[in-house]
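Problem 3 from the worked examples.
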Amino acid sequence: GSSPSCNESADSNGDGAIDLSDGIYLLSYLFLGGPAPASPGPPIEACGPVPADSLLGCEAYSGC
C-alpha cells in the first residue's frame, strides 16, 4: 500500500512512531473494549503548518 500523506494520523496510540503497536492498539479498541484512538489529524482550528517539534509530519490532511 501507499504511505499516508499525514503520518501523524497513522499513529493510533500516540507514541510518536508508526509501528506494529498502532495496529495492536486499534485491534484492542475494536475487539477488547480498549481505549478509543484519538481522532486523526489536527482539529480544524489548528490546521496550518506542522509544528517544528512534530516527529512524524503531516504534508497534507483532507480534513483541513
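Problem 4, a separate protein:
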Amino acid sequence: MPTAALLRRESDKGPTPRSVADSDRQSSVSLPFSKKWTCDMLIAQHSVAGEGVVCPLPLHNDSVSTDQIALNEFLAGQSNLPWVVFRAAHRAANYPTLPARARAVLAALARTVDANDPYASIFARRELLTGRALQSMRTFYRSLDDLETAGLIERAPQKRYGTAGLFGRAYLHLTERSAMVLGYISASVETESAEEPAESQDSRPAVLDSTFETPCVSVADGAIYKDLFPKNQKRQPGRLPADLERLLSLGFRQFLIFKLMREAKTHAKLLSDVVEATWDHLKQAKRPISYLRALLRSPVDFSHQIRAKHAADERKTREAKHAAQVELSVSESAGKTFIDTEESKLIVVSSDAQSISVHYHREVSPRVATGQWAESFVAAIRTNTLKEATFEQIKDFQRNRPNAVIRPVDAQTEATAEAQARTRTADIGDRLNEMKRTLRAACAGVSRAAKGGFPDDDRSQNRAGKPKGYGVQAVV
C-alpha cells in the first residue's frame, strides 16, 4: 500500500529536464538491443559529465525514507480522534506547570476519559495508560503523584468485596480544574451549575464519596488475603509469642514449642496459661518437657487460675491505690477542723494526722478516735458530709455547747492527758468496796460448802464400821 501511494505521487508529477534527457539517452542507446537489456543498461549506466546541471542528481536513495513517511501517514490516519478529545490531549501535552512525565499521563487520561461525562471513573488498566504515555510502571505512579499534588486528578481507594474476600479496582477521576483545563467543560456551564439548588450540588459529591470509602484492609491481592495460612502448610510462623520465649532457657526448641501449642489446643488449653500458672514448678522440674506435657493432659482449668490470680492482683493494686489516696487525704487534713452538714459535731484532726477528736454539741468532753477512722473520714469528706469549718461556725458551735472549749488536739496534749493520775471519787470507792464484799462472800460460801461435805463422809464411814474421825484425819 505505501509503494502504491509513492508511485501514484510520482505519476502525478510533470516532466522535468532530467526526465527528458534520460528519455533521449535511452532512445539512443537501446536501439541495437532488446527491451530487457535497455532496462539493465538504464540501471547500470553511470553519470555523464555535464549532465544534471539544471537538476542535480540526489546523493543517496530516498526511497526507504519515503516509504516510511507514507507508512506513518497511513497508520496515523487510522485513529481519528474527535475534535474535543484531540484538543484535550493537545492541551494536556502542553500544560506548562507540569513535568514531562505528568503531561504525558494527563494526555493519556484525556484520550481515555468519557468526553460527555468527564467526572466519571476512568475505566482503563495500567497497561493501557502506560502504553499511551510511553512510561514504565514506576514512572507512571510518580506521574500520578504529580497530578494529584497539582489537583488535576483524584485517586479513589481500592474497593473491597467483603463477602468474597476480593479487591476491586482503584479508579481515577478528573477534577473540576482539570476538566476546565482540558476543555471538557466551559466556564459558562460551571456558572449555570452554580445557580442550581444546593440539593443538586450535593448529589454528585455524595455519590463520589460512596466510591471513595477506604477499605478495611490494605492487602493488594485477594489470593494473598485468603491464603495467609493454608491448612496444608507445615511450616509454622517464625516468631514465638513473648510469654513463651522463657521456655527456651529450659531446653525447649522453637519448633517443639509450636508443637506443644498445637497439643494444648487439642486439649482445649492455651500453652501460655499453663506456663504462666505453673512456671515456678516448671523451672524446678528435672524433666520440664515431660512435666509440661503431663500438665497439658491433666483436667485442670489453668485459664481459671490465671484469671483468679489476675483478679487478686488487680484487687490488691486497687486496695493499695485506695489506701495511698486515703493517706494522702488524711495528711492534707492534718491540723484542720471539720463540721458536718447538720452542725451537730465538730471534728478536729491532730497535727500528726494519727487521731481525731469528735465534739458533739450535747457532750462536754470530746471523743478521741485512734483506730480505723481514716477511711470513713475521707469518705465523708468526698461525699460533702464533712466540710472544713470556718471561724464563725466554730464560734457558734462553742456557744451552743455547755462549758466546753474546743482546742486543736496534738500529740503532746494527748500524751500529757494520759500521764496525769486519775483521782478516786466517792462513787468509784463505793463501787470498789461493793466488789470486795461480793468477792469475800463468794469465797466464804465455797469454803463452807467444802467443810459441810466432810461430816457426811464421816457418817457414811461410821455406818460402814470405821472409827470416828477417819475422814478428818484423811483430810488433814
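Solution to problem 4. The two ends are 161 Å apart (CA to CA). The mean pLDDT is 73.
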